[in-house]
Write a structure and sequence with these properties.
The complex is a heterodimer of chains A (156) and B (711). Chain A is α+β, with helices and mostly antiparallel strands and 156 residues long. Chain A is 37% helix and 15% strand. Classes of the chains: A alpha+beta (156), B alpha+beta (711). Chains A and B meet through helix 3, helix 4, helix 5 and helix 6 of A and helix 5 and helix 15 of B.
């Protein structure tokens, strides 16, 4: 099996893998990354989203061959409890979840959004999260959290 | 003759589990373990329970470790459902912690030689006059908690509580934003293998032959498991398990299935089946008034999927004739009871331990997948096996919320005042939970070699809020009524408990017809409701929602407003909702929901708001979009494309006001909003478009059909 190399949360990783295996499976089963979650396996729910070269992408149907030499960021690489990313801080401040299973994917979508648009409108935030499903109904809290993070980032 | 006052009762969960040490333990220095029997299902319950414990024990909440429920150690609190966790677990913990505090004060008094009444507790340190002090942890060797709670323990008064009533941050959220594994899906047991189960596409089909050859050739396969109509694979990795399952599917031969109803005529189906009929309630008018006419209306709701974001998952590990199960079931003891029946093992040989799953809105496939894991793990040579369902299986093999047809006939007098009310429900039962019957309710139990029949769902008794009949008895003071429930005795589509059981359908029907009658009378719909309510708390939520929404907003073209109200189960939380919708042609969008809620004492107000917001948004999704689809052979809504739910751009603004009543025993908030929001949207559609849509979901097609019917 070929070795596929990519950047993961700031470090170079090389994985010996079937090139058709999905990024989600490699992250979870090989690299100890548990934040992206399996939800549907068809790229429809967003629970598995990660940031690939600054774009939020579903990892459940992304073959490893397409990840070669790319830069992948997951919530593990976003920040830590000691040094949280503004989004992580804002999601705590807004208590922006119920079950939280979808949250990693939503943080990935939001992080990618703020990278390309540091001052989004509410409608832009909603549009950026439209491919993430939340079943508990915490949408409005999450939108507020993303706007709060944006405002914090722009004032710092 | 005077009668002695009745002996005070223990809270229900405590009466069943009176041993103090099963709820509270002082572990290492500075830590307290609190062990409820209720489980976190995304509703924030562990935080609210920690608040209650912190208050009664006088300790900082950060010292509390909330222990996950397990049949090995936890009190048996049945199932985490019905918005009862605060009532059951909260009351028990409040009582237990007050008792424990008293015991420690007594021990401190002895040790310090100071009257207990002069001692005070602050963050676990007990101090008294003369600067003497000790602590829970210093005294924990002296104070045994292996005693049973006694009735009559007095907890703090509402005013003396400092944590309850505060919107403190939830204890589980940091893990979830910092990617620390917390979900069962993320838990890596040592040596973990992976299983997948083969299930038919055709509803009710049974596996009759299986060529295992191709599956056996898959690299990484550990075992193919076959037990009658149950079949699955165990493999070293998820990828291998999925590849083996795919191969196994090609080798499967299935029997014919059992036909499904005509999805286009659910009411016709529901109203033509054999049923068990119950008269839920009757009220006979003291002075019967003459009805001059009657309004007869039928309302329907479809089967609704739980559609949790995560597919159900479980792990199981055998050690000779003992098995350990990790599950996100709502009831670890109930699941254990069913596993015991299927495995023909005493319950002592089975440990069922809870781990968090994704948001749970009732009896989904959590229990089913646990049996799947147990059956597959038998072939794993003592290694643990993790089974995760596919999205497809989750959307077609898990139980659904039951479809309902509801007919109400309102007898009206010449002024269109209500003089009689006849409410009839046709629906499958709303509960087929495990652990409640002599036969198991788990899916694989109906597939194995000596299968158990599929349990036909039933309804919880009226004392527990009922099922299909939940919220069917009006809270309004009509002079006479008859409420009848027809529970189907056939069940071609598997149903069980989904959030609110029948309440969403019944409140939709009652509140829609009330709106219609108010309109007929030319009376404001809120004034009309207030005139028929006798309960001041009910009136308060309506008035509060009305004030907050600026009722009644000026009529604008293309905008509609509607109201809905219910007290969940007629015994729980009061909730009023006002919906603002935008209608363009035959398409609608819900712009804003304004809600007022009264849960008595709100332990964590932000937690209550979160639950109400979430309930309101989920209800909006049900109303606008959700409907399990099927043809005569199979469930066809097996993906998010075929079973769409509300997206971020479609979610309305939600504004919630809590009416705090710290002196009133708290009740749950998770199911209060669904009925009122459903009705509020329906009534707003009428206000906006002039049509009554009585069939859910209110899709464009349904609105067009209602318009055609009106014109």
């Amino acid at each position: 099996m070929p070795v596929i190399q990519f950047q993961l949360n700031g470090a170079t990783v090389a994985v010996d893998t079937d090139p058709d295996q999905t990024l989600l499976d490699v992250l979870r089963s090989r690299l100890g990354i548990t934040s992206p979650h399996f939800g549907c396996g068809a790229g429809e729910c967003g629970a598995c989203r990660v940031v690939v070269d600054d774009h939020a992408m579903a990892s459940c149907d992304m073959p490893m061959w397409s990840v070669a030499d790319k830069t992948v960021v997951t919530v593990e690489g976003l920040g830590t409890a000691e040094q949280p990313h503004p989004l992580q801080r804002a999601f705590i401040s807004e208590q922006a979840m119920q079950c939280g299973y979808c949250v990693s994917g939503i943080l990935a979508s939001a992080a990618a959004l703020l990278k390309r648009n540091p001052s989004p409108t509410e409608a832009e935030v909603r549009a950026a999260l439209d491919r993430n499903l939340c079943r508990c109904g915490s949408h409005n809290r999450m939108v507020r959290a993303v706007l709060r993070a944006a405002s914090e980032m722009s004032s710092s | 003759m005077s009668m002695a006052p009745p002996a005070p009762n223990l809270p229900v969960s405590l009466a069943a589990n009176p041993r103090l040490s099963s709820w509270v333990k002082f572990t290492v220095e500075g830590r307290v373990a609190i062990s409820p029997g209720k489980v976190e299902i995304g509703q924030g319950i562990v935080t609210a329970l920690a608040q209650i414990a912190a208050d009664e024990l006088d300790i900082e909440i950060g010292r509390i470790d909330m222990i996950r429920a397990s049949t090995a150690t936890s009190p048996n609190e049945g199932v985490t459902s019905g918005s009862l966790s605060i009532q059951h677990s909260g009351r028990a913990l409040r009582h237990v912690c007050a008792d424990v505090r008293q015991r420690f004060l007594h021990a401190a008094s002895e040790r310090l030689g100071i009257d207990a009444g002069l001692l005070d507790v602050a963050d676990g340190t007990i101090s008294g006059p003369g600067n003497v002090r000790t602590s829970y942890w210093e005294l924990s060797g002296d104070v045994s908690l292996d005693h049973d709670a006694v009735a009559g323990t007095v907890a703090k008064s509402a005013i003396a509580r400092s944590m309850a009533g505060q919107s403190i941050q939830r204890v589980d959220i940091p893990d979830k934003v910092f990617a620390r594994p917390r979900f069962i899906h993320d838990h890596a047991l040592s040596g973990l293998l992976h299983g997948r189960v083969l299930r038919p596409d055709v509803s009710g089909a049974r596996l009759i032959a299986l060529d295992e050859g191709a599956a056996r050739a898959v690299s990484g396969l550990i075992a193919v498991v076959r037990d009658g109509g149950f079949a699955g694979v165990v493999a070293e990795s998820e990828v291998a398990a999925e590849a083996a399952l795919k191969a196994l599917r090609k080798g499967a031969t299935w029997s014919a299935g059992q036909p499904l109803p005509n999805e286009g005529d659910l009411a016709g189906f529901l109203r033509s089946q054999p049923v068990e009929t119950t008269v839920v309630d009757t009220r006979i008018a003291a002075a019967p008034a003459q009805a001059t006419h009657s309004l007869r209306r039928q309302y329907t709701r479809p089967y609704i999927a739980h559609a949790s974001i995560a597919p159900s998952c479980a792990m199981a590990q055998w050690n000779s004739d003992r098995v350990h199960v990790w599950t996100h079931s709502q009831g670890v003891y109930l699941l254990r009871a069913d596993l015991s029946i299927v495995l023909k093992l005493p319950v002592e040989n089975i440990v069922v331990e809870h781990m968090e799953g994704a948001g749970c809105y009732g009896h989904n496939a959590a229990d089913d997948v646990a049996l799947d894991a147990v059956l597959l793990a038998r072939a794993a040579g003592g290694l643990p096996v993790r089974v995760q369902w596919t999205r497809h299986d989750e959307m077609c093999h898990a139980p659904f919320g039951a479809a309902m047809a509801i007919e109400i006939a309102a007898d009206l007098d010449a002024d269109n005042e209500i003089v009689g009310w006849h409410h009839a429900i046709w629906s499958n039962g709303h509960a087929a939970r495990p652990g409640r019957a002599t036969q198991p309710a788990l899916l694989a139990a109906s597939e194995i070699a000596n299968p158990y029949p599929r349990m036909i769902s039933t309804n919880p008794p009226a004392a527990n809020g009922g099922g299909g009949d939940r919220n069917s008895v009006p809270l309004y003071d009509f002079p006479a009524w008859t409420i009848t429930s027809h529970r189907l005795l056939t069940m071609p589509v598997r149903t069980s408990a989904l959030r609110t059981l029948g309440a969403q359908g019944n409140v939709f029907a009652i509140e829609s017809l009330l709106d219609e009658i108010a309109a007929l009378r030319g009376e404001d719909p809120i004034a009309f409701r207030l005139r028929h309510l006798r309960d001041e708390r009910a009136k308060d939520v309506l008035r509060t929602a009305a004030r907050r929404a600026g009722w009644r907003p000026q009529k604008q073209s293309g905008i509609g407003h509607g109201v809905g109200f219910a007290r969940y189960k007629n015994t729980g939380a009061y909730c009023a909702a006002i919906a603002e919708i935008e209608g363009t042609g035959d398409d609608i969008r819900v712009r804003r929901l304004t809600l007022a809620v009264d849960v008595g004492e709100a332990i964590n107000p932000d937690g209550v708001i979160n639950q109400i917001e979430g309930g309101a948004i989920q209800a909006t999704s049900w109303v606008l979009k959700e409907r399990v689809r099927f043809d005569l052979e199979r469930i066809t809504s097996t993906s998010w494309t075929d079973y769409p739910i509300l997206t971020f751009s479609e979610v309305p603004a939600v504004d919630v006001e809590i009416i705090q009543r710290p002196e009133v025993e708290p009740v749950g908030a998770g199911e209060a909003a669904h009925g009122p929001v459903t009705a509020a949207i329906a009534n707003a559609v009428f206000d906006c478009l002039g049509v009554r849509v009585r069939d859910l979901p209110m899709t464009r097609d349904r609105i067009i059909a209602a318009m055609e019917l009106t014109s």
